[in-house]
Amino acid sequence: MKYALIILIVLLGAAVLYFKDQVLLSPHDSYYSALLRENLKATAEHWKAEAEKSLAAPLRISLPYSERHLLEVDYLQPITFAFDLKIDELIQVNIFPSINTRAEVFVDVFHVKDAATEPVRIGSMAAKEQQFKIAAEHTGQYLVRIQPSHAAQGLMDVTITSPLRYGFPVDTERENAVQSLFGVGRDGGARRHEGIDIFAPRGTPVIAAETGFVSRVGDTPRGGKNVWVRGDQRSFYYAHLDSIAVVAGERVARGDLLGTVGNTGNAVTTNPHLHFGIYKFAQGAIDPLPLVGRKKSLTTYAPPLVELAPRWLSVKTEKANLRSGPSLKATSVASLIRAELVQVDSVAGDWLRVTTGEGTKGFIARSLTQTPSESILTLTENYVAFYLPDDTAPVVGNFSAGDKLPTLGRFGSFAWVKMPGGVYAWAKAPEQENSTTH
Ligand SMILES: [Zn+2]
Q1: How confident is the model at residue 428 (pLDDT cuts 50, 70, 90)?
Q2: Ligand 1: distance of its center to the CA of 1 in Å?
Q3: How close is the Cα of 188 to the center of ligand 1, in Å?
Q4: Residue-wise pLDDT tens digits, 58-79
Q5: How far does the centroid of ligand 1 lie from the alpha carbon of residue 263, in Å?
Q6: CA 206 to centroid of ligand 1, rounded, Å
């Protein structure tokens, strides 16, 4: 009997460990393990290493963001985007593969506590899903890493948005209605404004920003006629009401009428407005503004229709900046020169997300690129032609010193050359010893 109990405890312990492991493994981790199980160790390690490299060098975007990328079997293309969010704001990632796309896509969201700490994964899109949504637990930087399965092929649109978390609590246009922000001084600096003020004519409907139950209805010197609605881990405070339309204990859904805009309480000398506050349990007042209004993004965000660019383009101008984000305001991460080739990873509106021959990733204005044109390269040594601009790629041919080959340009230490049969290959060239003639 005693032994049976011990065996039972051991079995239970093993079960707990097993299930804990199942829960902690993200689809990204599981895919890596699956590659290992299929004896694709080199592929698995390369795939994982690229993911880690990408996470360590994110590109900066602002939301909403969308891009279309071309998935090609030969290219592993993890990408990590960085952006800032305020506490409780939502992150939504949508993946839209085109009909013939053959790829699994892994989306992981990370929070960056500070520069000295490793990013912490806060959530992952479930396998086979195409949408993932999660809220920011802290104000700060977040990362979204998107990585297709190896040998992925086809087209994929990606959007990253921050949909509004709650409804707007006054039945009025958002524009210019919010006139007093969160955190500004009150009573000569003795306290801070624990909400926002939304101005509207007396009698305008005040509506529930979120579903919950009415926890308190009152009339106090400061808030005047006020309503508290308790929702999931949060309380919503509606104050200075002219009239109240609910009673304590009542359930309200988002959009339900709570009362009307007024100037009761300490707002008697001010124009009618709603004081709206959100209190998060164990944290206190948080800024409602990013959660309810004044935002560029909409709840549904359709990716702009863009023509896909070719995989390889060359720099059209004397010099061009590669930027950390798709904006002229983004910092320059590299300077590119005329005729230099870039590998196009995706199209984001008027910007291309590219990789340079040095392996740097960034954005270049599409207008600064063009289809590469041919010039003649005279070889000064013997060369090896690779299938890809990568020493470890299959060898597809050899060239001898003195050969003259049509070339479309350089990518790092490789020249993209036309082989005698008309097929293009990547010739590994020594440092700047040969010159191109135009
Ligand atoms: Zn106020």
Answers
A1: confident
A2: 68
A3: 14
A4: 999 999 999 988 888 777 789 9
A5: 11
A6: 15
What is the token pair recorded at 27? Answer: 């689809």
Ligand 1 centroid – CA 180 distance (Å) = 7
Ligand 1 center from residue 173 Cα (angstroms)? 18
Output the CA 91–ligand 1 centroid distance in Å.
28
Quote the ligand 1 centre to 275 CA distance (angstroms). 4
Tell me which amino acid residue 154 is: G
| 251 CA distance to ligand 1 middle (Å) | 25
- Cis preceding linkage at 303, omega within 30: no
Ligand 1 mean position, distance from CA 295 (Å): 20
What is the whole-number distance in angstroms between the Cα of residue 83 and the centre of ligand 1? 29
Residues with CB under 5 A from ligand 1 (ion): 197, 275
For the chain, what percent of residues have pLDDT higher than 90? 61
pLDDT digits (tens, 9 = 90+) for 150-171: 888 888 899 999 988 999 999 9
Q: Please give the full DSSP string across 151-171, using - where no structure is assigned.
A: T-BEEEEEEEE---SS--SBS
Average pLDDT over residues 203-214: 96
- CA 280 to centroid of ligand 1, rounded, Å: 17
The phi and psi torsions of 173 (rounded to 5 degrees) equal -65, 135
- Tell me if 123 sits within 8 A of 109, measured CB to CB: yes
Instruction: Give me the domains of the chain, ranges plus CATH numbers.
Output: 2-161 (2.60.120.380), 178-287 (2.70.70.10), 317-368 (2.30.30.40), 375-437 (2.30.30.40)
Is-above-0.90 flag for pTM?
no
Give the 3-state secondary structure of residue 220.
strand
Round to whole Å and give the CA distance between 250 and 229: 9
Report the alpha-carbon distance of residue 269 to residue 59 in Å, rounded: 49
pLDDT at 18 over 70: no
CA dihedral 189, 194, 195, 196 (to 10 degrees): 0
Residue 418 above 50 pLDDT?
Answer: yes
How much distance in Å is there from the Cα of 344 to the middle of ligand 1? Answer: 50
Average pLDDT, integer, range 250-275:
95
| Cα–Cα distance measured from residue 127 to residue 220, given in angstroms and rounded to the nearest whole number | 51
Can you read off the two tokens belonging to residue 45? 């390690």
| Higher pLDDT, residue 150 or 252 | 252
For residue 77, give both structure tokens.
């293309």
